[in-house]
Specification:
The chain contains seven helices and ten strands. It has helices at 46-53, 77-84, 100-105, 115-128, 144-156, 174-191, 202-205; strands at residues 4-15, 20-31, 35-39, 61-66, 69-70, 85-88, 162-166, 194-199, 210-215, 218-224. The strands form two sheets. The chain has a six-stranded mixed beta sheet with strand order 6-7-8-3-9-10, with helices on both faces. A hairpin with a 2-residue loop joins strand 4 (61-66) and strand 5.
Length: 225
Amino acid sequence: MAKTLIKLDDVVKAYDDGQIKALNGVNIEIMENEFVSIIGPSGSGKSTLLNMMGALDVPDSGSIIINDVDLTSGKDLSKFRRKNIGFIFQLHNLIPNLSVQENVEIPLLETNTTEKESKKRSKEMLEAVGLGDRLGQNPTKLSGGQRQRVAIARALINNPPIILADEPTGALDQKTGKKILNLLKELHQKSNVTLIIVTHDPNVAKQADRTIEIMDGEVINDYEN
């Protein structure tokens, strides 16, 4: 039986001295190895929700339990993130003065991984996303789709159980975006990770096994695709 990997219970997050409720009593359960899309218009609370799931922020009230860890218990969230979460952002966030391979190795820097092992793992990850021939190249020389592939390799290098993707195809043309989405789906199946994609695009959302729709900080729909 599948295990509950992520559980949000009555999560509230407000800004501007409580004037703006980004999340207003959110209850969500996501199972191990699920592929879930979170959809909603701009300002609906999607990014805040992703920040909560990624241990980048904590709620004002309510609880968040991820991989059996209570994120509101005051634990070291940076250590938790390194071990459990891989992030993929819309604009890649690659460092331009590092090579493609060096960018992929960044999550390993604060671990006990040797340089030799880092090189081996980063090479394997880049080969998995079809960029094994670009190890020493500067990321500024790559296309948008290739840079996103580098970001995916970087997100997967620590073998995290959870991948969070924030509009991963948002800055790409439709054809390239489809390739990236297919790659994510393939890696999800091969690596048995839990994949969560935040998007405003219904065509991207329906590729997931399940869609959670959020509006004005509240879950208004949760359905199987």
